[in-house]
Amino acid sequence: MSVALAPASRFAAARRRAPGVLMAFTIAAASTFLSEHYGAPTMLFALLIGMAFHFLSVEGPCVEGVHFTASQLLRVGVALLGFRITVGNLASLGPAPVIVTPLLIAFTIGAGALFSMLLGRGARFGVLTGGAVAICGASAALAIASVLPGRKDGERDTLFTVIAVTSLSTLAMILYPALFHAFGFSDREIGWLIGATIHDVAQVVGAGYAVSEEAGAIATYVKLLRVAFLPAVVIAIALAARRPAAEGKAPFPWFAVAFAVLLIVNSLGALPPVATKAFGAASQWMLVAAIGALGMKTSLKAMADLGPRHIGAVIGSTLALLAAALLAVRFI
Predict the structure, then answer these.
(1) What is the DSSP string of 245-313?
(2) Which of 73-77, 173-177, 241-245 ranks highest by mean pLDDT?
(3) How far is CA 113 from CA 62, 124, 226, in A?
(4) Residue 299's Cα: distance from chain center in Å?
(5) Can you give the pLDDT at residue 257?
(6) 300 band by pLDDT with thresholds 50, 70 and 90
(7) DSSP per-residue string spanning 115-178
(8) What is the mean pLDDT of residues 69-76?
(9) Phi, psi (5° rounding) for residue 170?
(10) Which long-range contacts (CB under 8 A, 24 or more apart) does 89-92 make?
(11) Which residue in 88, 83, 97, 321 sits closest to 228, CA to CA?
(12) Per-residue pLDDT averaged across 101-107, rounded?
C-alpha cells in the first residue's frame, strides 16, 4: 500500500509546485528574450522581473514552486554547470584558491563576531551572520543556527540573517561586476573576486556569467570551494559552542560533489558534444529560472524594517570579506 502511495504523493507535490515553477521559467524566457534584443545580462533581467512579482512568493498557488525553483532546481542547475567547465580551466588557477579560501572564511567569521559585539548584538549573532556571509548565505545560516546554543530570539536572528544575506547578495550581483571592472581587474580576476565575495550560489553564477564565460567558470569553482567548507565549519562551531551537532542538520552540499563529478566527466570527453551542449543549456535555463525565483523571494523592505544594528553587523562582515578578497586577489 505504501509503495502505491509514493508515486501519488510525488505527483501531488509536483502539482503544487507547478504554478511557481512555470512562473519562474516564464520569467526566464522573458529575460532571455530581452537580453537577446537589448544586450543587458539575462540574469539581471530575471532578477529585476522576479522582484516585481515578490507578492507571488508570499501567498497564493506559486509559493511552493517558487521556493522549489530557488532551492532544488538551483542546485541541479549548479551541478550541471560541470558540463560547461573542464579541469584545464581550473588547473590554470593553481593551488592558491584552495589555500586562500579557508583563510577568508575564518577571517570573515571573526570579523562578523567583532562587528556584532561592537554593535551590541553579541558574539552568537556575529558567528551566525559571519558564517552566512563567509560560506553560502542562507544555507549556511540555517546550518550554523542548528548548532548554536538556543535562545529566545534565536529564530528571529536566523530569519533576519537569511533575508539580509539574500538581499545583499542580490545587490552584490548587480554592483560587484561594475565595481571590479572599475578597478581594472581582468575577467579572470573578476571571476575569482565574485566567487570569493558574493554570499549565495545563484547570485555568484549570475554575476560571473554576466561578465564572461571565463569569469563565470572561475566564480563557480571558487564559490563551490567555499560551500565545501560548510560541514567543517558547522562541526567546529558546534564544538566551540559545546553542543554536539545533530546528525543530518548540517546540509551536505551534494550539488558541489555532483558539480565536481560532472566536470571530470566533461573533461574526459565521456559524452558526445550534443549531450554536453544539451546539459549546458538545461543548466542555463534552470539558473535563470532560479534567479527569477530568488528575485520573487527578495524583500528589500523586510530587511530595511529590521534594526540598523542588525543590518550593520551583516554589512560589516560583507565589507570585511570584500576588502580581504581585494587584497588577496593579487596573490591568486
Answers:
(1) PPTTTS---HHHHHHHHHHHHHHHT-S-HHHHHHHHHHHHHHHHHHHHHHHHH--HHHHHTS-HHHHHH
(2) 173-177
(3) 37, 7, 19
(4) 16
(5) 77
(6) low
(7) HHHHTTS-HHHHHHHHHHHHTTTHHHHHHHHTTSPP-TTHHHHHHHHHHHHHHHHHHHHHHHHH
(8) 82
(9) -60, -45
(10) 89/214, 89/217, 89/218, 89/221, 90/217, 90/218, 90/221, 90/263
(11) 97
(12) 91
Q: Flag whether pLDDT at 139 surpasses 60.
A: yes
* Residue 102 burial (C-beta neighbours within 10 Å; 0-12, 13-18, 19+): middle
- Type of residue at 298: T
Tell me the per-residue pLDDT of 213-238, one tens digit each, with 9 for 90 and over. 888 888 888 888 887 787 778 778 87
Q: Between 205 and 304, name the one with better pLDDT.
A: 205
Distance of CA 126 to the CA centre of its chain: 20
Is 215:208 a contact under the CB 8 Å cutoff? yes
Q: Which residues contact 121 (CB under 8 A, 6 or more apart)?
A: 309, 310, 313
Cell numbers for 126, please give them: 556575529
Query: CB-side exposure of 32: number of CA atoms within 13 Å?
Result: 13
d(CA 181, CA 189) in angstroms, rounded, equals: 10
What is the total residue count of the chain?
332
Mind listing the pLDDT tens digit for each residue in 172-183? 888 999 999 999
Is-contact 329 176, C-beta < 8 A?
Answer: no
CA distance 155 to 55: 23
Measured CA to CA, the distance from residue 258 to residue 75 in angstroms comes to 9
Q: What is the pLDDT, as a whole number, of residue 322?
A: 92
Cell of 92: 590554470
Residues 28, 287: Cα–Cα separation, whole Å: 9
| Cα gap 56→182, rounded to integer Å | 36
Distance in angstroms (rounded) separating the CA atoms of residues 233 and 137: 14
Reading the block at residue 71, the C-alpha cell is 532551492
Identify the residue with better confidence: 248 or 284: 284
Tell me 38's DSSP state.
Answer: H
